[in-house]
Amino acid sequence: MTLREALELPTFRRAAPKVLAGAAGTDRAIRWVHATERPDVRQLLRAGDLLLTMGTGLPEDDDAAGLTSFVDELADVGSAGVVVELGRRWGAALPEALVDACERHGLPLVVLARETRFAALAQEIGERVVDQQLAELREAQRVHETFTELSNELASPVEVLRAVQRLADAPVVVENAQHRPLDYFAGPDEDDGFLAGWPARSRRVEVAGRTGWDAANGWLVTRLGTTDRAWGRLVIGSPQAPSQRLVAVAERAASALALHRLHDRDRGTLMRRTHLELLTGLAEDPGSDDVRRRCELAGFPVHRRSLTGVVVRGRIGTVAPVDLDEVAATVVRAAHALRVPALVCEVERDLRVLVSTTPGADADELVDRLAARVLAHHDVVVAAGRTAPDRTGVARTVAEAGQVADAAPQARREQDPDVHRLADLHLRGLLALLGEDERVRLFVERELGPLQEHDRADGSRTELLAALRALLLHPSSKTEAAASLHLSRAAFYDRLARIEAVLDADLDDPDVRVSLHVALVADELLGGQPK
């Protein structure tokens, strides 16, 4: 319990408490209560202890140095505060030196105008502290039992994250080492806005040690993996400083995810493990005869074959996140039914698929048929790279499929193809190939920085970026652009005028429009706004 809460207890209220100094510190937790008149209290107290005194043993009123030294000792040990009962030593006021020293340290100083029994105060506070400690122990036991059961049942990452969401009652995200969200479970009052601008925001968050709290974003962040071999982070929404219980939930969840990763690697089916090794071998050493022979033994021909990389990825933020094991099984069944040789493996919560076709076959058409069978059962994003004429292009086609998946819209749209390809993404495809080139980032900052600064300063009153996006999405009709924002034409035109003033640019200039459109798309791909 905090001192602020303690001041509302019946015994405290009857004593007419008044905070004279260090009011901001009344939110600190009380660990225990001590009543003493000894001035040398440092050896008696621990961090979080609240001191009750009548002041009879404290230095004289004119001994400012002595009173200041007394407060310094309380601050050094991390005391929760000091409560002084008036009447026995001091009448209506305390010495200024005592009050000033408490205010300087931010140490709460409370006076009681009415006589009270310190034993009753200590008992009432102590009972509440013990009750809270018991409640914390019960919650800690609940956390322990939950994750022990999950570990015993070899729970999947989805089951672990659902448990975290339930225990934390907050949004939960797992990201990879490149700060791309792999899984997301919304909190009770959250929407997909929690993921807005995720990669860019996440890169700015650094925590010391394994777990830390980022106050700016309201994130509790826990490293996944060791310091030298971290493979991602677990993030739990926590607008306020997290409790020890929430920290325990995060760290137990991180351990459960690491255990699953280790166990899954050890228990993985021979096929999945072999396919990952073969795909890695083809990408890193495509000319190796040993890799070729192993591929052929595994029923995956690579000699005189065309090879197409495909990435299958669960959509982030869906009501029912996909189970990649089930998706992988569906891909294998579909490939078998179509008689298409395929390597299927999981990397960073993506399914990577390499399809082998004869040179005369229509590789794109076969991939489309494969995707149609998968999409009939799972809500996933399917992206394909350009077909490589031989195995020397495996690394390129697989990497390109991943870049296309990164650029593809997360929300499914009616006009979207079953399989996203670089040619379908047009400008997005080009920017996806450029990846996170620092020159693209600088271009976005140069083009959109003034509007972003304006919107941050102005809040939600104008949202000039939204107005610019609406204008560029409806190039032939400003009326439709205004309607998309539920604005009148006059209000929309006013925002366009403000955009031109902020950017010092003419929005009717085709070059300006193209430049701003490119910057907006690049900003989305870099994580600036949800797609």
Automatic annotation (TrEMBL):
User: What is one Pfam family matched by this protein?
Assistant: PucR
What is the name of the protein in this document?
A: PucR family transcriptional regulator ligand-binding domain-containing protein
Q: Which residues form the Purine catabolism PurC-like domain?
A: 6-127
Matching InterPro entries, A to Z? CdaR-like_regulators (IPR051448), CdaR_GGDEF (IPR041522), PucR_C-HTH_dom (IPR025736), PucR_C-HTH_sf (IPR042070), PucR_dom (IPR012914), TIM_sf (IPR035990)
Report domain CdaR GGDEF-like positions.
288-406
For this chain, the family text in UniProt reads: Belongs to the CdaR family.
PucR C-terminal helix-turn-helix domain segment(s) = 464-521
